[in-house]
Amino acid sequence: MSTMNYPQRMRQVTSVKHPDARLAAATAPRRFKYLNIPFLLVVTALVAYGLFIVYSATFNNDTYNFSRQAAGVLVGAVLMFLLFRYDYHQLSHYMVFFLIVNVVLILMPHAPGIGATAKGATSWVNIGPINFQPGEFAKVTVILLDACVISKYGGKLTNLGDFLKALGIMIVPFVCIMTQPDLGTGLVYLFIAGVALIVGGADVKFLLATLAILVAGVAGILILDPILDNIAGHDVLLKEYQKSRLLVFLDNNYDPTGDGYNLKQAKIAIGSGGFLGKGYMNATQSALGYLPESPTDFIFCVLAEEFGFVGSLALIALYALLVYLCYRIAYGAKDLFGTLIVMCVTGMWLFQILENIGMCCGLMPITGIPLPFMSYGTSFMVVNFTLLGLIGSVWAHSGR
Fold it and tell me: Cβ distance 301 to 270 under 8 Å?
């Protein structure tokens, strides 16, 4: 007779799992392998908040269609979850492909018959009932291009020849976008490249020298522009609307019926919201037509007017959480390519957030840079969800 008592025998038996049970235990966690729950919760809150505000800003506005924004969210969400399961490592071998796609996308508006000009820039493409900004979609391929280029150097870019080669490749999209010209999107491309160089270990001396040349170039353009305009009899380097936005930033009283008016109305909208706001659907500045482009460029003003300081702070808190979670994902990536993807996306969002909110408050020059997950735009929403998918792919395929 065995001396093993019943409870001991039961523990021994139950400790040996049936093959089916072992298979279920191994496969069950994989259902959630591709999901970073805190990340998804923050994204869901941001998107819901954005839809909430866009609905108010587009209510009784025939120019904008809220259903298109909702469709962009649905299409983008599908792309995001598909990308969660895609192994981002496979993208690291397509540098030349991404470079070609960038050039084709950004120059597409110049193609006869499909290009369209709006707000002084030939940046739209109209194909039948479909109209979109290729430069917006190129943000995805710009990020992937820059990540491919810099990851080849293994986090140590200290040779001047290698630095100039990498910089030359990454600056191609900026040169192409300036043919439209779309300075706002061009600045986004430059910022993405800057983030890639910093994260990729570029020598500080090279970075400072590049920054100095960039500042000198901007100063040279500002000095030469009026001289060249007088000689040629038309705008040469800067368009009239670009100069107007810069002058309004320097002097709020400049152009009181144009960009100066827009800035004043934006400040009025934000200030009138007070601490708690006027309430949902009660943003009079946008509802009465005083605030131009309220669903797109100045969507933050609508939020601030309706929900005040508290609502604005809630949005900034969500953005801060998103940036923090993205940083954690980048830190946990098992290769430089993954880290570069996440940091370039995060840097781009941070730049857009600071620029958009800053221009609404008069702290930054007025540009056409939209506010992530808040501004109206089907293409813009699909692009942001695609970038979320890439971040989720890095998290899912980093050895978890």
Answer: yes
